[in-house]
Amino acid sequence: MAKQVKLAAERREMTGRSAMRKLKGRGIIPAIVYGGKDKPQPLQVSRRDINVMLSHASGENILVELEIAGEKSSRMAMIQEIQHSPVGGDVLHVDFHAVSMDEKIEADIPLEATGIANGVKNFGGLLEQNLRVLAVECLPRDLPDKITVDVSALNIGDSIHVRDIQLPSGVAAKTPIDLTAFSVLAPVVEEEPVAAVAEVAAGPEVIKEKKEEGEAAPAAAGAAKPAAPAAKEKEAKK
């Protein structure tokens, strides 16, 4: 089940950026609780208490019993959002969502696989996880921290759908039941590269015929023809 913790808080009167800086200097983190029948209420909590709470949490869903100074009864809430500093990751602000222990809530629960699928272990298949979280509905006290699914019986081609997942008592799935959560795929067979043809890479070979000895080369197109013998004699007499 989701972890339930107590957290001391005080009403916050200070607002604005300068007020937030002053709170930070005192080791205080601004927060707010909203939801339920009450109006949103600004709060402030100790940075140390928040860090301790988060360090002991095993999941994202934490039930918090807010003990607000000056109020007779505590308020049950869940952490809705935590704002972190982009530099260093320090907690800057916390949003709480008030819940009633008698009313069902919806939450996204982490989905994890346990075991080694038979198709992976013995046949080289690949386990594919299609869903990382499962949306559920339940009472706050029944809220699971995480949902584990045993995949050891899966062979290649087998799948586990949402409808096949065994949920804790009091918990109902809100994710469509026909969606695939886990499946085992066949191993990928790599094809051997085709050897390159050297002759194609080098280009076609040019073969020249050897001329017979004494064979005259053909006249180039457009070349001047040799003068006739008679014309050579006349030129000599001159």
How helical, in percent, are the residues?
10-25%
Tell me the span between the first and last alpha carbons: 127 Å
- Main sheet: which strands, in order across? 1-3-2-6-5-4
Q: Architecture of the largest domain, CATH level 2?
A: Beta Barrel
Poorly predicted tracts of residues: 217-224, 234-238
Q: Which homologous superfamily in CATH is the superfamily of the largest domain? A: Ribosomal Protein L25, Chain P
CATH structural fold name of the largest domain = Ribosomal Protein L25, Chain P
| Mean pLDDT, all residues | 83
Number of helices: 5
Largest sheet: 6 strands, mixed, barrel
**Gyration radius, to the nearest Å?**
41 Å
Structural class: alpha+beta
CATH class of the largest domain: Mainly Beta
How many domains make up the 3D coordinates? Answer: 2
